From TrEMBL:
Domain of life: Bacteria
Name listed for the protein in its UniProt record: PIG-L family deacetylase
InterPro entries cross-referenced by the UniProt entry: GlcNAc_PI_deacetylase-related, LmbE-like_dom_sf
Any GO molecular function: hydrolase activity, acting on carbon-nitrogen (but not peptide) bonds, in linear amides
Pfam family, any one: PIG-L
Amino acid sequence: MKKRILTILAHGDDLAFGPTGTLVKYARQKVDVHLLIAVEKVDNTQTDGHFGFWEKEEIEKAASIIGISKLHFLDFQTNALSQVMLTKLTREIVLKILKIKPQIIVTLDPAGLSKNLDHLAVAVAVSQAFQKSADQNELNSLEISLKPYPASKLYHFIVPEPIQKRFELEIESMPDEKITAVIDVKPYFQTHLKAMHSQKNPNSEMKRLIAKLKCTQHHFEFFHLAEPAVSRRALKEIDLFENI
């Protein structure tokens, strides 16, 4: 089976400090890289997007630069995911998993990297969808007639505490012991930066992040293996497809 990875994020701007380098890496390795953005409709009256909300065409441009094989959207609006029934959001994600059939699923950590309610809703829904997509009884309860599909691994993209302090970002970080995989993204750093420049009118926080990235260099991305659950590992993975 062809290697396939599905990354699920709430907003397009989550690519700014998300697993972008990792996606570029796998795209260059001819992995089938899928990106699912839960929010397609941007409410321009809302201003609490951490790095500024990206319009659909900006996300499409960034996806093209990254090398995304297929970009998917769910039909939800900014700041509305927390108001959507969790079952509805989970069902939509389950359907995508069953159709794409990825071995690897990546999403934000349970804290969502920030206190943004859309992030939290997606993190919870993805965790549930990972389990439900592999269970026929759960699919029946969701009124989905497709056959179950068990993805191999679910990873949470995380920001270690030292990185959070270095970049002086107001986001949730994780202690180093939570890290189970470290991906070397140094060769893809410039492509990551280019994708971030897809936003036409970046806000001050995005400009600050880009400047900080250029100064410090961003050579590694960090993940926690959420499913299957593991105890502390002696050695950290350097490939999300390890043992698949």
